[in-house]
Amino acid sequence: MPELPEVETVRRQLDERLRGRRVEALRIRDSRLRFGLDETALSRHVRGKTAFSVRRRAKYLLVEFSGGGVLLAHLGMTGRFTLQRRSTPLGKHDHVVFELDDGDDLRFNDPRRFGVLDAFPRDREPSHKLLAHLGVEPLGPEFSAELMRGMARTSKRPIKNFLMDATKVVGVGNIYASESLHLAGIHPKRLAGRLSGESWRRLIDRIRFVLEDAIENGGTTLRDFMSLEGRAGDYSGSLRVYGKAGARCGVCDAGTIRRIVMTGRSTFYCPKCQR
DNA sequence: CGGGCGGCCTGGAGGC
DNA sequence: TGCCTCCAGGCCGCCC
């Protein structure tokens, strides 16, 4: 379940490995991804082109190619990129294969096909359907207590739902929402519109801390996430509340972590120190 | 129009 | 061991 740290982990590896690599051939074995797959666009913007950088926006990876094209990729729930020798047998869920000029394959593998691949000219990026509505980057300079408090002012939603709304702030998914609220001492059901400036400052600080800490540790693997080299993320062992129902709270050392369901998502918090 | 939620998917886990 | 059900959750799109 890739959130921002997992996607950023993959971005860094892809950027290093793809820079200067030409895609000699493109093999689309299954185009039934979340929104289908525009084979024409992929061929036009990727095949025969050389990658020169990999960026990230929210949980989207954006590979820039010579010729002005951009490849957009979203890992969905179970998507992963792998790099292997061309002779390695294709896996059941290796849906798209990018044959690189160094003899390796970059493969997009996604058992559940919640992932997305698309390609378009760079000048269309700002208006792309999946990118246009996105909110601020949590690790960027615009992510401030003033901005968030302003956006939340009229909201009657619980803070956890607000945090997971990508039109407000991107990249914070189910795991890191619970983790950052826990460190900030804020109950997930507190109404977003009721948070003080001080609470927002604290929460924003904890969100940044948790995301950066997770990136440094290669992300979190609960089940599916794998880096480019097929390594699981090390941050799983650092989770403080997610999946820890019944455990002693590591912050107050008094409460017992509780699991509740909010809008269909498992939510973990300490009833003692999160108010 | 903000926001809740259905649906897309498959594999793994747990129950019997 | 085998089948059946449930659950995981990002996020668009529908609908209230």
Helix and strand arrangement:
Blueprint: H1 4-18, E1 23-28, H2 39-46, E2 51-57, E3 60-65, E4 69-74, E5 80-85, E6 94-100, E7 104-109, E8 116-121, H3 145-152, H4 159-163, H5 174-184, H6 197-216, E9 258-262, E10 265-269
Antiparallel strand pairs: 1-6, 2-3, 3-4, 4-8, 5-7, 6-7, 9-10
The chain binds a DNA duplex (16 and 16 nucleotides) through residues 1-3, 34-35, 59, 74-78, 93, 110-114, 129-130, 154-157, 161, 164-166, 173-174, 222-224, 263-266.
Description:
With 275 residues, the protein is of the alpha+beta class. Helices cover 24% and strands 22% of the residues. It is built from six helices and ten strands. The protein has helices at 4-18, 39-46, 145-152, 159-163, 174-184, 197-216, and strands at 23-28, 51-57, 60-65, 69-74, 80-85, 94-100, 104-109, 116-121, 258-262, 265-269. The strands form three sheets. The protein has a four-stranded antiparallel β-sheet, with helices on one face. It is globular and about 55 Å long. It binds a DNA duplex (16 and 16 nucleotides) through residues 1-3, 34-35, 59, 74-78, 93, 110-114, 129-130, 154-157, 161, 164-166, 173-174, 222-224, 263-266.
- Beta-strand residue fraction: 15-25%
Helical/strand content category: alpha+beta
* Sequence stretches where pLDDT stays below 50 over 5 or more residues: none
Helix share, percent? 10-25%
Average pLDDT, to the nearest integer? 91
**Over all CA atoms, what is the radius of gyration?**
20 Å
DSSP summary, beta strand count: 10
The N- to C-terminal Cα distance equals 28 Å
Spatial strand sequence of the major β-sheet: 1-6-7-5
Biggest sheet statistics: 4 strands, antiparallel
Tally of DSSP helical segments: 6
- Written as H for each helix and E for each strand, in order along the chain, the element string is HEHEEEEEEEHHHHEE
- Rough outline: globular
